[in-house]
Specification:
- The protein has about 140 residues and is mostly beta strands.
- The chain has one helix and ten strands, in the order αββββββββββ.
- It has one domain (about 25-80, about 90-130).
- Mean pLDDT is about 80; it is low at about 1-25.
Length: about 140
């Protein structure tokens, strides 16, 4: 009887440990810059900003990774335009976006999905601490 009870307790502990651990957040990404020649991803405690040429993006809320370093977060993405603004120019539109990534050590792989446009940007390989001067729109 003691042996059966011990097995049940062991099984319960195993189920509890494995239950939601694959999807539960395990680490909050601390502030810092991840970048490459095309894109800069700046993480803060309250979210992230993304810059790429004329374009920009935003993630609201902390960035939590799962046990494998992955994340999938909603946000917005805006396609900018170059040249001086003119009166009557249409406003830039923020598109719903999904930022999917994986962090392994000092490297982040990031893909940006724009479902309403049926468009995907990336994947981008970003390095922690790398902030390049991006070609900005003029």
């Amino acid at each position: 009887m003691k042996r059966a009870l011990g097995s049940i307790v062991c099984l319960a502990c195993f189920i509890t440990a494995c239950g939601d651990s694959a999807t539960a957040p395990t680490e909050i990404v601390s502030g810092g810059v991840w970048g490459n020649d095309l894109l800069v991803f700046t993480a803060t405690a309250s979210g992230a900003t993304i810059e790429s040429g004329c374009d920009s993006g935003r993630i609201e809320g902390s960035i939590a990774t799962d046990q494998s370093g992955g994340f999938s977060l909603p946000g917005t993405y805006v396609f900018g335009r170059g040249g001086p603004g003119q009166s009557g120019d249409p406003l830039l539109k923020a598109h719903s976006a999904r930022y999917v990534g994986r962090i392994a050590g000092q490297t982040m792989e990031l893909t940006i999905s724009l479902p309403e446009l049926s468009r995907t940007l990336g994947p981008f390989q970003l390095s922690f601490g790398r902030r390049n001067l991006l070609d900005r729109c003029l």
